[in-house]
Amino acid sequence: MQFSSAIFVLFLALTILLYYLLPKKWQWGVLLVASYVFYLSQGVQYIGFLLYTTVVTYFTGRILSARAKKEDDFVEANRETLTKEERKAFRASEKKARFRILLCGLVLGFGLLILLKYTAFFAGGVRDIVTAFGGASFKIPSLLIPLGLSFYTFQSMGYLIDLYRKKITAETNFLKFALFVSFFPQIIQGPISRFGDLGKELTTPHTFSAGDFSAGLFRVAYGFFKKLVVADTAMIGVRYLYEHTDTQQGIYVILLILLYTAEIYGDFTGGIDITIGISRMLGIRLAENFNRPFSAQSVKEYWRRWHITMGTWFTDYVFYPLSVSGGMQKFSTWSRSHLGNAVGKRLPVYFATIVTWFLTGLWHGAGWNFIVWGLLNCFVILISQELQPLWNLFLKKCQKLSGSGFFYCFRAARTFLLMGLFRSLDVYKDVPLTFSLWGSMFTTWNWGELFSASGLTSFGMNLWQLLVLGAGILLILLATNLGKKTPLWDRLASRSVLAVALSACILTLVLVFGSYGVGYDAADFIYGQF
Asked: How far apart are CA 310 and CA 192, in angstroms?
């Protein structure tokens, strides 16, 4: 039951109807049942893994919370008899004990993710090494990978870390916690929510709001437009170019970069629009995951605008803890004393950044293409950071140029093309092949082919599909520009009739111009595969 299927629309309508018609105290129960029905529809074989993560996280969280409460109660009860040093020593001891509990939960939670998603990748590496030294090859087992595994695992492990840091208190109701892990609009592709933001939202009763419902409906329609009109149409060209890399080189690599950017943007942001729109129709607010990423002036800024919840997860739970860890502090001290202050103060940051981006790449997929993609992003960010003083000097010396609209557009276009170039590793997958194709952009001068009489249809798309794609992209640009300060759906919240009318118009466009794939079954969302 995909978002873009007719059965999902019927399922959603029934869920919303029951949600608002039944007594408010049952609303979270309706969502829990709907979430498990939705996930079961993806495949009965997946449900055990979801339950495993839910049970492990819930009971580890309860143990963490109980230990923290016992610590606080003891300190409060003995505040008058314990010295400051004794209280500090006691809390330090208890923190170590809580860390051991957290570590067990993380091993059990991430262990399942690593086992299912990365066994084949690591086993393949071992097999390559064995065969390279003359050993016998062996068969790698094929393991089941549940849909949304990375998303609900990261969300659950973030919950445990927040409990360890005492930022939240544990949910004592197992079923309510199960809803947090399985909430159906977001379980397949995010956003990755925090319990402190979403926990109460899911279980607090909500009154029907015409403004929220109509604004959410408009956003859902807009998401379907992005997915079915833009992303799935662009996918036709992307698929053809990927399947014909022997002939489609040079200018066609640039074309693939542009088409795949349109595909993944329409696919991922469209899916997130549907997710957040459905939630808003239910009165629930989810964290935004995108903020006009193609206006970013640098790679670092781009990652503050694209897949925001993933970026903040890695920043909060990997980069910062690693940067201030005891081992990193010792490494920093050693580096400063042996390599000088200038180098010593950079190395720990470099190390933490490289580890973070290596894991970010690995999160996206178990393949060298994703690892290289992550490290390329890391390399550009670190180089940019080192060149920042020179860049600031340039901006100061050339204020007229740096403050112009032309320069703003130039920097945005540069970032857009660079990120598109790196993202082509998603499509070509084979790293040496990708690098070779990147080189062909400078060695194979076949620009004339694309602009010849037959060039516009030489990459698997007909003229009608190109017109639909172009018009769809223009409409998205128009909508983005109109919603530059305040998103369109928020502006329409106070004009419910207009929002519903526009939603109907957009859905009509989707039905007429949407690309529904083989057998009229829309392609799965790209991030649903993670």
From this structure: 6
Going by C-alpha positions, the residue among 488, 154, 470 that lies closest to residue 292 is 488
Secondary structure of 92-137 in HEC code, one letter for each residue? HHHHHHHHHHHHHHHHHHHHHHHHHHHHHHHHHHHHHHHHHCCCCC
The model's confidence at residue 521, banded by pLDDT at 50, 70 and 90, is very low
Half-sphere exposure in the Cβ direction for 58 (13 Å, CA): 18
Which backbone phi and psi does 291 adopt, to 5 degrees? -145, 75
Residue closest to 249 by CA, chosen among 376, 457, 433, 466: 433
Q: Does residue 404 sit in the same domain as residue 525?
A: no
Does residue 32 come out as left (phi exceeding 0), alpha (psi in the -120 to 50 range) or beta?
Answer: alpha
User: Distance between CA atoms of 12 and 107, rounded to whole angstroms?
Assistant: 36
In which domain, by residue range, is 10 found?
6-128+136-207
Q: Which helix (H) or strand (E) holds 489?
A: helix 488-491
Tallying the residues shown for the chain, one arrives at 530
Kindly tell me if the per-residue pLDDT of 346 is higher than 50.
yes
Residues 6+ apart with CB under 8 A from 421: 257, 438
CB atoms under 10 Å from CB of 45, counted, come to 10
Q: Does residue 432 have a cis bond before it (omega within 30 degrees)?
A: no
**Residue 430: what residue type?**
D
Residue 491 lies in a domain: yes
Q: Are residues 19 and 81 in the same domain?
A: yes
Question: Is 1 among the domain residues?
Answer: no
CB contact at 8 A, 425 and 418: no
Residue 40, domain member (yes or no): yes
Q: Per the residue annotation, which of 206, 244, 307, 364 is the catalytic one?
A: 364
Q: Is pTM beyond 0.85 here? A: yes
Q: Max CA-CA distance within the chain?
A: 89
Q: Kindly tell me if the per-residue pLDDT of 121 is higher than 90.
A: no
Q: Is 338 a catalytic residue?
A: no
Q: What is the pLDDT of residues 144-180, one digit of tens each?
A: 888 889 999 999 999 999 999 999 999 999 999 999 9
Give me the number of domains the chain comprises: 3
d(CA 253, CA 259): 10
- How many CB atoms are closer than 10 A to CB 217? 24
Residue where one domain finishes, among candidates 207, 229, 249:
207
Question: Is 329 a domain residue?
Answer: yes
3-state secondary structure of 403: coil
